[in-house]
Amino acid sequence: MSYIQSVIPFVPVLPFFGALFLGLFGKKIYARFGENVTGILGCSMPFISAVLAVTSFIAINGVDVTERIIRIPITDWVSVADLQLQWTFRYDPLSAVMLLVVTIIGTLIHIYGMGYMHGDKSFSRFFAYMNLFLGSMLMLVLGDNIIIMFLGWEGVGLCSYLLIGFWFTEEANAIAGKKAFIVNRIGDLGFLTGILLVAYFSMTLFGTTDLSFTELQSNIDVLAGQTVFGFPLLEVIGICFFIGAMGKSAQIPLYVWLPDAMAGPTPVSALIHAATMVTAGVYMMGRVFFLFTLAPHALGFISLIAALTCFFSATIGMAQYDIKKVLAYSTVSQLGYMFLAMSVGAFSAGVFHLLTHAAFKACLFMASGSVIVALHHKQDMREMGGLLKKMPVTGYSFIAATLAIMGFPLTSGFFSKDEILWKAFIQGSPLLWLVGFVAAGITSFYMWRLVFMTFFGETRADKHTWEHCHEQPKRTVVPIAILAVAALTIGFWNVPHFLGGHGNFTNFLDPVVHDLSSKPMENYHKIQLAKQADHQPEDTHGAAVEHEEHVDHTALEWGLMLASVAWTFFTGFLAYIFYIRYPKAREKIMSRAAAQKVFAVLYNKYFVDEFYEAVVITPLRKLFGFLGAFDQMVIDGMVNFAGFMGRITANLVGIFDDEIVDGAVNGAGWSAQTGGKGASSMQSGRIQTIVASSLIIFIIIVASVVLFLG
Amino acid sequence: MMGIPELFFYFFTIMVIGIGLFVAFSKNLLRSAFALFFVLFGIAGFYVLLGGDFLAVVQIMVYAGGVNVLLIFGTMLTSDISSPKTSNLSFQGALTFIAGLTFLILLVVIINTTHWPMHVPGEMAPTTKDIGRLLLKEYVLPFEVISFLLLAAIISSLVLVKKGD
Amino acid sequence: MGLTGFLTVSAVLFTLGLVIFISRKNTIAILMGVELMLNAAALNFVAFARFTPSQASQLDGQIFAVFIILLAAAEAVVALAIALSVYKNLHQIGADKLASLKG
C-alpha cells in the first residue's frame, strides 16, 4: 500500500471529525479554555489535511505518468441488484490540484477566521461549520463515483446555507441563506436528473454498474449512441450537469444567490464563495470532460451562458459601492471565464484559472474583511479611502491580488486568463474572445476603482473610525500576505509554449483531462469519422485519417496578449483618472441623465431580483392567495349551505319532536330517572372498580360453567 | 436432559414472570416502566422460540424501542418521580389479589383440561418474506386500515397535546 | 415446552396485566397493564399458530400478532397523549381521582 493510498482517506475524514468534535464539545471548550484553544482545535484538522494533501501531491509527482489515477476502495456501500456502489476515493492529478486548493486555502482561511471572529459568541459553531464544509468539499473532490460526489455537493450546499445565515438573528442574513439554499436546489435538481439518466442508462446497457467515473469514461461510446425523448443522451446529460453547475457556480440565471451570500462572515465569503464551493461546478465539468467532448451542442450552450455571465456581472461590479458586493460580482464574472474555457474544450485552462482565481480571490476577500473589521464593520466604499497608510500589509496584498486579477504581465491571472482568451479565440469564435476581452477590461476598471476608493486618496471615514483604524493582528494579515505571494507567483506553473514555457500544468493534468485540439464541433465530427473508419476498415486510407495542419499561431497569440494587456492597462488608468486624478471628470459624466440611467440599471443589477420577484415569486404568492380565497368562498360556502339546510331540517324535526316525541320521552325519562337515582350509587366513575366488578362476574360465570357443565 | 430451546424457554419464563411481578408490585413507577422493558424483551424471546423471527424483531423495535420509551417519558412528564410514594399506591388490594389468583387458577385449569387440536410443528424457516407477502395479499385490507389508524393516532395525539387550548 | 407451557405463561402475564389494571392508581401504570395483556394475547396467537393445525397459512397467527403490536402502539400513543393533556388540565393523573364519569 503506497503512501498516497494510506493517507488520502484521512484527508476528508479529519475535517469531518473536527466538525463533529467541535459541534459536540466546542461550546464547553470555548467556555472553559477560551478562544485560542478553540481556534487552534478548529484549525488543526484542516492543517493536517493540508499537510497530507501536499505530501500526497509530492508523492504523485514521483509516480509514473500512466499510473497516476489511484483508486482507493474503502468499503462496499450500496449493493442493490444491478447497482453496486462502492465507497471509493479517487486520487489523480485533477483531484490532487483541487485538494491543494481546498486544503491550503481552507487552512489559511481558518487561521484568518480566528482573527476575524474574535469576540464572537458563536466562535466554536463557526469552526464546526467550517470544518464540516471542508470535509464535504473534500469528499466532493475525492469521490470516485457520481453519488459520492453528489453527497459532497449537497454537503457544501448545506454548509453554505448554515454559514451564510451564520448570524441568523438578523432577518436579512437568514433570508440570504434561504435564497442560496433554494437557488442551489434548483440547480441540484438538474444535476440529479443528469445523474439519474446516467444511472438508468448504465444499468440498462451494462447490467451492473458502479457509477464510477472510470466506468463512465470507458463506456462513454455506448452511451453516445443513445437518445432520450429524441435528443442525444449525452447532450441532455451535459445540459443537466451544467444546470447543476449553474446553481453551484453561480452562472446566469442562477447566480442571484452569490451576491446575497455576502451576508455571511467574510472568511466564509472567501472560503466558500470565492475559493472552493463555487468552483465545484467547474471541477465537476473537468471530471466528466469526456462526456462534454461528445456533447458539442451542450458546450455551445455553455459558452453562451458563460460569456453572458462573464460580461454582465462584470458590468454590475462597476456600479456597486459595497466592497464585498463588488468582489462577489467579480467572482461570478471570473467563474464565467472558467466556464468559457471549459466550453471551448480548454479544460485544463479552466481548471488552471480555478486555481489562480482561488488564490487571488481568497486574498482579495480576506483583505477586504480585514478592512471591514478595521472600520468597525463598514462595507461602503464611499466611507473609506486612504487606508494604505493605516494598513500597509493588507493594502499591498490587496494591490498584488488586484494585479493578478487584472492580468498584469507575469502574475498568475495573466497566464490563466490569457490562456482562456486565446483558446476562446482559436477554438471558440472571435466573438467569444471579444466578450471575454471586454470583460477583462471592465474587471480591471472596477478592481482599480475598488483599490482607489478604498486605499488611496483622502479618507471619507468619520474621524473617530479613522483614528481607531489600524492594521489587523498577525493571524489575520499573515494568511493574506501568503496568498498575495501565491497570487503573484502561481502562474508560472503553466507558462504557455509561445512564452517559452512548457505548459506544465496542462501536462500534469493530461493523464485525466485531455484538452480538445480543435473546436468542439469539429472535434466531434472528427471522432465520428474515426468511428466510421473503425467500422469500415477498407476506408482507412480515405478521408478519415486527416492530416493535422500545424499553423504557427505565435504571432497571433502575441498580438492578442498584447492587446488585452494594453486594454486592461487602459481601463485601469481610466479608473485612476476618474477616482484619483480628476474626480471632476467623473462627476461631469455622471451628471448627464443618460449616464445616470445606465448607472441606476447597473447599480440595481439589471433589476434581476425585481424580475424574479415579479415573474416567479409574486405569481406564486397570488396563486396561493387564490387557492386560499377559493377555499374560503366556494368550499366554506358549500359547508355553510349544508349547515343551513341542516338547521332548517332540524327546526322542522324539532317542532315534531317537542310535541309528540317529548311527551313519550318525558314519561320514559321520569321513570328512568327515578330508577337511575337508585342505581347511580353503583356508578363511582372509577373505571377500575368497573373492571374489577366485571372480572368477578366473569370468574363466577366461567367457574360455574367449568365446574358444573365441564 | 433438557435441550437448548427448553433451557431458553424456562429462562424466559422465569424472566418474564419474575420481572412481571416486579412491574406489578414495585412502588416506584419509573422502575416498573424500566422493568417492563425486560418483560417485553422476554416475550420477544418466546417469539423466537415459536419460530417468529420477524415478529421478535418487530416486538423489540415497536415495544421496547417505541411504546416503552413513551411510557417512560409519560412517567417522567406526569408524576413526581422523586417521591415514589405518591405515584404508586395500589388500592383494592385484597380484592384484586383474590380475584386475580382465582382468575389465574381458572385459566390454568382450562388450559390444561382442554384437549387442543395439535400437530407436530414443522421446521422453522425465515418468515419475513412470507409475512410481507401475506400483508400485501390476503391481509391488505387490514394492513391499509391499520395504516390509517396509525395516521389517525398520530394526528389525534398531536391534537390532544396541542398548546393553547 | 409445548403449547400448554406457552399458554400458561401467557395466562400468568394476562393476569398480571389485569391486576395492574385494577389495582394501580396511576393512569400510566394502567397503560402498562394493558400492554401486558395485549402481549399475552399476541403470545397466545403465535403459540397457536405454531402448534395447532390451520386451514390457511401457518403464519396467520403471526400476522395477528403483528397487527396487535401495531394496535398497541397506536393505543399507547393516544392514551399517553390523553394522560398528558389530563395532567396538564387537572395536574394529576391518579385514576382514583379522575371520577368525572360519576353518575
How would you portray this structure in words?
- The complex is a heterotrimer of chains A (710), B (165) and C (103).
- With 710 residues, chain A is mainly α.
- Among the domains of chain A are: 348-514 and 553-595, no CATH class; 519-545; 608-709.
- Helix content of chain A is 75%, strand content 3%.
- In chain A, the strands form 2 sheets. Chain A has a two-stranded antiparallel sheet with strand order 1-2. In chain A, strands 3-4 form a two-stranded antiparallel ribbon.
- Chain B has 165 residues and is mainly α.
- Chain B starts with a helix and ends in a 5-residue tail after the last helix.
- With 103 residues, chain C is mainly alpha-helical.
- Helices cover 75% and strands 0% of the residues of chain C.
- Chain C is built from 3 helices and no strands.
- Chain C is elongated, with a radius of gyration of 17 Å.
- Chain C starts with a helix and ends in a 13-residue tail after the last helix.
- Chains in contact: A-B, A-C, B-C.
Helix-strand blueprint:
The complex is a heterotrimer of chains A (710), B (165) and C (103).
Chain A: H1 3-7, H2 10-33, H3 35-61, E1 70-80, E2 83-91, H4 93-116, H5 123-142, H6 146-164, H7 171-206, H8 213-218, H9 220-224, E3 227-228, E4 231-232, H10 233-248, H11 257-260, H12 266-275, H13 280-287, H14 289-293, H15 296-318, H16 323-343, H17 347-374, H18 387-390, H19 392-406, H20 412-428, H21 430-455, H22 463-468, H23 474-489, H24 504-509, H25 520-535, H26 554-581, H27 583-590, H28 593-603, H29 608-680, H30 687-709
Antiparallel strand pairs in A: 1-2, 3-4
Helix pairs in contact in A: 2-3, 2-5, 3-4, 3-5, 4-5, 4-12, 4-17, 4-23, 5-6, 6-7, 7-10, 10-13, 10-15, 12-17, 13-17, 15-16, 15-21, 16-17, 16-20, 16-21, 17-19, 17-20, 17-23, 19-21, 19-23, 20-21, 21-26, 26-27
Chain B: H1 4-25, H2 29-49, H3 53-78, H4 84-87, H5 93-113, H6 128-136, H7 140-160
Helix pairs in contact in B: 1-2, 2-3
Chain C: H1 3-23, H2 27-51, H3 60-90
